[in-house]
Amino acid sequence: MSGEALRYGSAGVDLDSAGDAKQRLKKLVESTFTAGSFGGFGGFGGMFRVPGGYENPVLVSSADGVGTKVKVAIDANKHDTVGRDLVNHCVNDILVQGAIPLFFLDYVAFGKLEPLVVEQVVAGIARGCVENGCALAGGETAEMPGVYTPPDYDLAGFIVGIVEEHKALGAHRAQAGDALVALPSAGLHTNGYSLARKIVSERMKVGVSDTFPGSDKSVAEVLLAEHRSYLTALKPVLGKVHAMAHITGGGLPGNLDRALPDTIDAVVNTSSWQVPELFARLQSAGNVEQEEMYRTFNMGVGMVVACDDADAAAVMTSAESAGMNPWVIGALKAGGGNVIFK
User: Bridge partners of 38?
Assistant: First the structure.
């Protein structure tokens, strides 16, 4: 053996920072515990009691990230919102099947672990969990020098929810004649950021601290706008819903078709809503074709609900009580499983 004695720190991994981060997270994690939480913070695995009162329960799970929205958070040095976005995104993904969230796990990977940044990220995750009534059952904070270059980090989340099997929503319940009710997004949510950041930096030539063109807000404020959760808006009326589509990557055409059987088309009336100015600005500055806009961005639509036409008013009233302004965006008709813009 020869040369200097090596330690983990000499390879770029700081165990002391990892210990500091863990202590900072304890209270945040415990603040999310629900009646189903079992065991304390710091276990090798998160435990959760299976809730009672179900006849034939089905667990529904999903995993996702926030894409390159995290680069906006890094550039703006504002890390307390992307964690909440992550939880809300995952909650919506299982909500479309009628599932109510039970618990959540997170994964955060750094080039160089920064305890204060970890704390801010997990604070956002904890806030999202509390707002959606799910426990943060555990997670992983990794330091990976050579994979990520400081100050970069990545973020992913994993959620588990529950639904009675006979109440599960989806394409199998969609019917010709159903109304399509749209719930508004609050901006880009967590998709299309690679194109949006390119347009902002290369075509608009503005940075995160600059004012977003046509707005009185900064670029950071506009691009870090929340990814809404639709749980509160739709939970009271899930029994009236047949199917839903969370409008994420792929936009309306790439997500609404996932809520359709092969025998039904979704007809979307593009004149039923005013696309928010944000998208018009991005389209103009980037010279983006209309079809590409609809495939890349949500265009102001965060969730689409298919329900009996007679129940559309109740769904809209429930969304309005949660502070949203829903509208009828179209309808389902006999066809071949296509999304048709009209």
Answer: 47
Q: Which two tokens stand for residue 50?
A: 């299976």
Q: pTM of the entire structure?
A: 0.91
d(CA 316, CA 329): 12
Of 288, 296, 289, nearest to 250 (Cα)?
Answer: 296
In tens, the pLDDT along 290-341 reads 999 999 999 999 999 999 999 999 999 999 999 999 999 999 999 999 999 9
For 76, 265, 304, the CA distances from 307, given in Å and listed in that order, are: 41, 14, 10
Percentage of residues of the chain with pLDDT beyond 90: 80
CA distances, 20 to each of 26, 116, 138, 147, 186 (Å): 11, 9, 17, 22, 35
CATH homologous superfamily, domain 8-167: PurM-like, N-terminal domain (3.30.1330.10)
Quick: pLDDT tens for 105-149. Answer: 999 999 998 889 999 999 999 999 999 999 999 888 889 999 999
CATH code of domain 171-341: 3.90.650.10
Distance between CA atoms of residues 237 and 87, nearest Å: 21
Dihedral sign for Cα atoms in the order 84, 90, 96, 101: negative
Look at residues 224, 270, 277, 225 and name the one whose alpha carbon lies nearest to residue 251.
Answer: 270
What are the sequence ranges of the domains in the chain? 8-167, 171-341
Average confidence score pLDDT of the chain: 92
